[in-house]
Specification:
The protein is built from seven helices and four strands; from the N terminus they run E-H-E-E-E-H-H-H-H-H-H. The protein is of the alpha+beta class. Strands 2-1-3-4 form a four-stranded mixed β-sheet, covered by helices on one side. The termini are far apart. The structure holds glutathione (GSH).
């Protein structure tokens, strides 16, 4: 039995969605984020030393990293589904599996870190300095990088409406997570990327994953007082 170690509001949404698309049986073990730090609870470290999500266990094997889990499940159980055939489309498929975490998540994460620094408690006279530093990093690096990536992605998704090949694939699941992050911060507007995101998040399997795994937001909000 496949067990998904599912951290609320996290990348493990991708894995639940994929398993629903493949109609595979699985169990969910849910973990709550720390209310203040938003980090995963220590119990996840008992599954994998980094204590991050997603991680799955399957017949005694522990598998971490979204892209690897997706590739493992599609290859082992997919019977050819959700993966394009043909050398060129397959190469694109693999490219997007790597790109989502390896490239696109970087400016998004750095943006989140600077937002967190800016919002954290500090003496009132330090606050304007923290904001100034965060704003200058956003202006000098984060925003230009995001623009670069989003223009590239907009032109790629305009080709067929999918990231790899002519139909929905697991690469679209992998790419949706960072795009939902951009969308949550109002960064997609009326683009082909926004249309793509709407189309994939309306899929019944996406909705079933949320029914089973619980409500989902890419940017977890602190519930700490
Ligand atoms: N590149 C990894 C990233 C894993 C990751 O950082 N997961 C986040 C959730 S979205 C996490 O576990 N955060 C809680 C923590 O760091 O304690 C993947 O795609 O699986």
């Amino acid at each position: 039995m496949i067990i998904v170690h599912h951290l609320e509001n996290s990348r493990s949404q991708r894995i639940l969605w994929l398993l629903e698309e493949l109609a595979l049986p699985y169990e969910i073990k849910t973990y709550k984020r720390d209310k203040e730090t938003l980090l995963a609870p220590p119990e996840l470290k008992a599954v994998h030393p980094l204590g991050k999500s997603p991680v799955i266990t399957d017949n005694g094997k522990v598998i971490a990293e979204s892209a690897l889990i997706i590739d493992y499940l599609v290859t082992k159980y997919g019977k050819g589904a959700l993966k394009p055939s043909g050398d060129d489309d397959l190469l694109r498929y693999q490219y997007w599996l790597h790109y989502a975490e390896g490239s696109l998540m970087t400016p998004l994460l750095i943006g989140l870190v600077f937002q967190k620094v800016q919002d954290s408690p500090m003496p009132f006279f330090v606050k304007p300095i923290a904001k100034k530093i965060a704003d200058s990093v956003r202006r000098a690096w984060i925003n230009p990088q995001l623009k670069l990536h989003l223009e590239y992605l907009e032109s790629e998704i305009s080709k067929t409406g999918w990231f790899a090949g002519n139909s929905f694939s697991a690469a679209d699941i992998m790419m949706s997570y960072p795009l939902e992050g951009v969308s949550e911060t109002g960064g997609l507007k009326q683009t082909h990327l926004a249309a793509f995101l709407k189309k994939v998040t309306e899929r019944p399997a996406y909705k079933r994953a949320i029914e089973r795994g619980g409500p989902f937001s890419v940017i977890p909000v602190s519930t700490a007082k």
